[in-house]
Write a structure and sequence with these properties.
Layout (H helix, E strand, L loop, with lengths): L2 H29 L4 H25 L17
C-alpha cells in the first residue's frame, strides 16, 4: 500500500479519534472547578486540527472506500 493510500485510511480514524477526545474534554470542562477555560480551548484546538486533516484528506483524494467497514477499536485512557 502506498503512503498516500495509507494516509487516506488513517486520517478518517484520526479525525474520529479527535472528535472523541474533544467531547471528553468538554465533558470534563463542565466538571472542572479550575482550568475549564483551558480545557475548552484544547477542544477547540482539536477542531482546528481536524479541519487541517480534512483538507489534507481532500488533497489526497478523499477517504478510501471499503467493501466492508474498517476495524474500529476502543482507546483506553
Amino acid at each position: 500500500m502506498k503512503d498516500s493510500e495509507k494516509l487516506r485510511s488513517l486520517i478518517p480514524h484520526w479525525i474520529d479519534h479527535n472528535h472523541e477526545h474533544a467531547a471528553e474534554y468538554l465533558k470534563w470542562a463542565e466538571k472542572a472547578e479550575q482550568g475549564s477555560d483551558n480545557i475548552k480551548e484544547a477542544a477547540k484546538a482539536l477542531d482546528k486540527v481536524n479541519w487541517a486533516l480534512i483538507q489534507a484528506l481532500d488533497e489526497l483524494g478523499g477517504p478510501i472506500e471499503y467493501d466492508h467497514p474498517p476495524h474500529h477499536h476502543q482507546h483506553h485512557h
